């Protein structure tokens, strides 16, 4: 048995556009080489345990497919220093993340069982398992910046815009969290594209003589615009015993709502 490993090749170029501005471009190719996981030869509706630790697709786990995950990305970056008081940065990533193994976190079933993916454990789960993985987002834009005014107020902001994640259709087999694909992985559409904007204001206040106590007042305005779009749907069509899931295709999670958070920090 070999240990888990990933191969990565990165090639980038960065160029200055004057003393305060630079741009960059980078390509990334990341491929899962091998992984250690648990598998069993048990058939459908079998209560057999017989768990085996190994590398999928070889030796003791040759009844499973080889675990695959291929990430390819093109990243564009921009950075601008605005005098001595401000900075603006941005990045855009065009990417693909495809394979049959989601990773140590079982994002198909949303279970934290490292090295034991519930969707990649038994032979009957192998068909229709290859496709865009749950965290595949084709487009991702991030913009962040900060500025300090002469009277002491600091303003920082962060904006993201991302395309949705792929949707699949599962059936539950023998126990609640063990599933198999009813259609090709990631072929059931995508969640909505989402965006998020948050801003922080901070203002320092000196207490006592110079070098003494200091106070910093903060105000965070989180998820401005309150989009609250759906970020997770129930993708399990069939429950145990062939029963249709009444919450299939229903929303399970949304973006966090607009929140204002006030803070006070005192230091010395």
Q: Can you give the mean pLDDT?
A: 91
Question: What is the ordering of alpha helices and beta strands?
Answer: EEEEEEEEEEEEEEEEE
The largest sheet is: 10 strands, antiparallel
Rg over C-alpha atoms, rounded to the nearest angstrom: 24 Å
**What low-confidence regions span 5 or more consecutive residues with pLDDT below 50?**
none
List key phrases describing it:
268 residues; mainly beta; ten-stranded antiparallel β-sheet; three-stranded mixed β-sheet; 17 strands
Describe it.
This protein has 268 residues and is an all-beta fold. It has one domain. The chain contains no helices and 17 strands. It has strands at residues 5-16, 21-34, 37-39, 52-54, 69-82, 86-99, 131-132, 139-148, 154-162, 170-172, 179-181, 194-207, 213-222, 230-233, 236-238, 251-254, 259-267. The strands form 4 sheets. Strands 1, 2, 5, 6, 7, 8, 9, 12, 13 and 17 form a 10-stranded antiparallel beta sheet that branches. Strands 11-10-15 form a 3-stranded mixed beta sheet, with no helix packed on it. The protein has a two-stranded antiparallel sheet with strand order 3-4. Strand 5 (69-82) and strand 6 (86-99) form a beta hairpin. The radius of gyration is 24 Å and the shape is elongated. The mean pLDDT is 91.
């Amino acid at each position: 048995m070999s240990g888990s490993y990933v191969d990565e090749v990165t090639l980038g170029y960065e160029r200055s556009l004057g003393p305060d501005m630079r741009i960059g471009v980078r390509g990334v190719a990341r491929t899962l080489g091998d992984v250690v996981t648990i598998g069993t030869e048990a058939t459908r509706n079998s209560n057999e345990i017989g768990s085996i630790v190994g590398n999928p697709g070889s030796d003791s786990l040759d009844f499973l497919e080889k675990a695959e995950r291929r990430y390819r990305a093109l990243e564009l970056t921009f950075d601008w220093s605005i005098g001595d008081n401000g900075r603006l940065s941005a990045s855009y990533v065009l990417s693909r993340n495809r394979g049959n193994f989601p990773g140590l976190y079982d994002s198909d079933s949303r279970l934290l069982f490292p090295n034991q993916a519930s969707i990649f454990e038994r032979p009957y789960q192998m068909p229709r398992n290859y496709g865009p993985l749950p965290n595949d987002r084709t487009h991702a834009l991030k913009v962040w910046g900060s500025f300090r005014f002469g009277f002491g107020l600091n303003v920082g902001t962060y904006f993201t815009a991302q395309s949705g994640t792929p949707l699949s259709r599962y059936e539950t087999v023998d126990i609640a969290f063990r599933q198999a694909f009813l259609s090709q992985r990631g072929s059931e559409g995508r969640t909505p594209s989402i965006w998020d904007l948050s801003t922080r204001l901070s203002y320092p206040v000196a207490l006592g003589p110079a070098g003494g106590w200091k106070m910093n007042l903060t105000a965070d305005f989180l998820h401005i615009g309150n989009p609250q779009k759906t970020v997770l749907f129930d993708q399990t069509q069939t429950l145990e015993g062939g029963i249709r899931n009444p919450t299939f295709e229903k929303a399970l999670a949304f973006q966090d709502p607009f929140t204002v958070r006030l803070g006070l920090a005192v230091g010395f």
